[in-house]
Amino acid sequence: MTEPASLVISGIGVVAPTGIGVAAHWKNTLDRRAGIRPVDPATAGDSGIRVAGVVSDFDPADFVPRRLQVQTDRWCWMGLAAAEMALADAAISDFDPYRLAILTAASEGGNEYGQREIQALWRDGPRAVSAYQSIAWFYAALAGQVSIRHGAKGRCGVAVADAAGGLHAAAQARRLLLRGQADHVLLGAAEAPLSPYALLCQASLGRHSTAGAAAGAYLPFSEQAAGWVPGEGGAMLVLERAETARARGAQIYAELAAVASTHDAHHPADPPPTAAHMAAAIALALERAGVTPGEVDLVLADGDGNRRWDALEAEALISALGRRAADVPVAVPKTLTGRLNSACGVLDLAWAALALFHDVVPPACEDLDGRPVIAGLDVARAPRRDANLHTALVFTRGVGGFNAAAVLKTAGGPS
Amino acid sequence: MSRRVVVTGIGVQAPGGAGADAFWARLVSGRSAIRRISTFDPAPFRSQIAAECDFIPEEWGLTPREIRRCDRFVLLALAAAREAVTSSGLDLEGADAGPAVGVCLGSAVGATIRLEEEYVVASDAGRDWTVAADHSLPFLYQALVPSSAVSELAARYGAHGPALMVSTGCTSGIDAIGTAYELIADGEADVMIAGASDAPISPITVACFDAIRATTARNDAPETASRPFDATRDGFVLGEGSAVLVLEELEHARRRGAPIHCEISGYAGRANAHHMTGLRPDGIEMSEAILDVLRQARLAPGDLGYISAHGSGTKQNDRHETAAFKRALGPAAAQVPISSIKSVVGHSLGAIGAIEMAACALAIRHQVVPPTANLTTPDPECDLDYVPVTAREHRIGHALSVGSGFGGFQSAMVVSALAKSRKEGIA
Lengths: 415, 427
Fold this sequence. Notes:
The structure holds two protein chains of two kinds. Chain A is α/β, with parallel strands linked by helices. Chain A folds into two domains: 7-247, Peroxisomal Thiolase, Chain A, domain 1 (3-Layer(aba) Sandwich); 259-410, Peroxisomal Thiolase, Chain A, domain 1 (3-Layer(aba) Sandwich). Chain A has 14 helices and 16 strands. In chain A, strands 1, 2, 5, 6, 7, 8, 9, 10, 11, 13, 15 and 16 form a twelve-stranded mixed β-sheet that branches. Chain A is globular. Chain B is an alpha/beta fold. In chain B, helix 3 runs parallel beside helix 6 (148-157) and helix 7 packs across helix 13. The radius of gyration of chain B is 20 Å and the shape is globular. Chains A and B meet through helix 5, helix 6, helix 7, strand 6 and helix 8 of A and helix 4, helix 5, helix 6, strand 6 and helix 7 of B. Strand 6 (156-160) of chain A pairs antiparallel with strand 6 (163-166) of chain B.
């Protein structure tokens, strides 16, 4: 049996509260420029969510023709922008349309568009509903629009597993490439959760921060952790076999060595009694990647920001990594952006790939500096350069019990 | 080496058929389950009919707590899953099934009914853009993010393996079962509870399809309104329902003496990269998906004993699909019986792909092709054997199901009677 092909990330597109485009995103990450802002009170209503990660300075017209803007929600604009930038970054010019797959994750669909059209229906009657509501609201809108915009005729997929969905899309991308059913996969997600009804729905879970100011609102693993901050935006990645990337002289950010997932199978909202199944996802990803706990140089953590959930994550990391858990830097750059729901995992994959590529441990927001954190973890605050990184672990969890982990490695020698 | 995957349990909640046996009897009868919408007043809408399930959650053992917590699409899935798992002989409820059992459920639109109902409360019937939390349910997050359905199933069966929802619009059902099939084939799980569910019969969904005139307005004659491949067809009829299958690795099923209905022998998806709702008449991308599954299953076109068509009953779909069959199958396209069960159970968006896979498994079991109801005026543009009106006994070793949906997605899957599957040769 031959060695399974190595799969690599050769393109990254980001539209996040940390910036638009991979260069701006990475620079702002290293500068610890958080994109968390107050939410307009007319939008927030009495949801209790008062701050959020916002993509400022995003003009959809830079990426989406006006004709298409009226047919799509903001999440699609950001997803289309990230997709365009990822493909450009990967510099794939000549591809077989049937061998380019589009695999997205989604959690919330076209929130603002959907609210506007349901309002029109109830206020003004059926004739007031837009002809585009049916293609703007549903969870597959982004995958379909990306496929059409870039002429991709391969498999399209949409994974929904709350915030673990992004890694499920990555797992599906790996399966497709390893099965030889695609040459390139564009995988990713975006979310636009900052409209009134979407915020109300999110607040019903009771896991959001009720802080009124951005500073100190989202402090995962700290003793002051009191909820998460939602964020908008997303990321797209190009994944392909290392041999095809090298053959066309592509830049390679990192190897995506393995993805694994489990489910707590406990309750649709409540925390499970133990972290056993979270740890199992991490252990399985390491095993599939052929990596020992001692080889893990960096963890991109889920960082829920609620104390019970943070404690479970710490328990999972300590259980799966053993003694290594105390030494390995645990990064929560999502404290700069808020939680992007289904795009969490993809943005973390992008951060991990960039961290390996540039050999820097990504920082957390400055608000976390100096605060005591959960014992037994080395939560990274300021960026750590020349960190000698070779292997990164990404761990994400979705509401309802979804656990997913991915392992990335530095991508071999020069092409 | 890819592992072989078989179907060992079937559960269905369909209009006119609660439970797999009642569903099959309804399909074979060719009597359409479409009627005037009963859950809200449809008078203001262009299309006022739908295929509704007479679904009584309590009869399927669902608890008051589940009924309060879950949207209708989740309840339908829980009921279908209970039948599927029970009939598979797996004893999972209240047990810990461990990491070898996973869940993959498809849904196109998730908890639409609950999201709309709660929005109406929170916005004072659409008067206010800023919404108020005063009277809203505590489970709204689970309505917003539909993977909550997967969590409900995983928790009930102690399924700690891979778990996700697949939401690719109207191909969600095939794609969810296809994803589960690949997870087992590639060794990531031994058992997958796989299927799809949608309950889209709500004012906003009806208004959506009104706005693009995708649904028929034959409100005076609901039972004959869904007319796939008929020359007088003029749109689809919205439906609801769920089908869940138990998929299992072949040796795992054999070791425990499980009832094996059929084997999944191929799954493929393509996109037309053309238009979110429009289809080119040539059917080329659906044809590519069909050719791919035939290659995977190592079948010639003439080996197919039945095709479950997408057959939505829109002008463009049925023409597109006929072209795809001809392109992929050549002269054999005219020989194989093809039908659309949407003529009986309507188009339940993401769920229908799983309901149609259940129909394929049952067609293999009974060696009967269910008919296309209401196909009384042949369309020269749809000139294949679409099995009009009356069910037909037929040798079915391999059944193909196809789906086509918004986004331009085209999916295909083949299931095979086990004795005739590719690696064992003809028994």
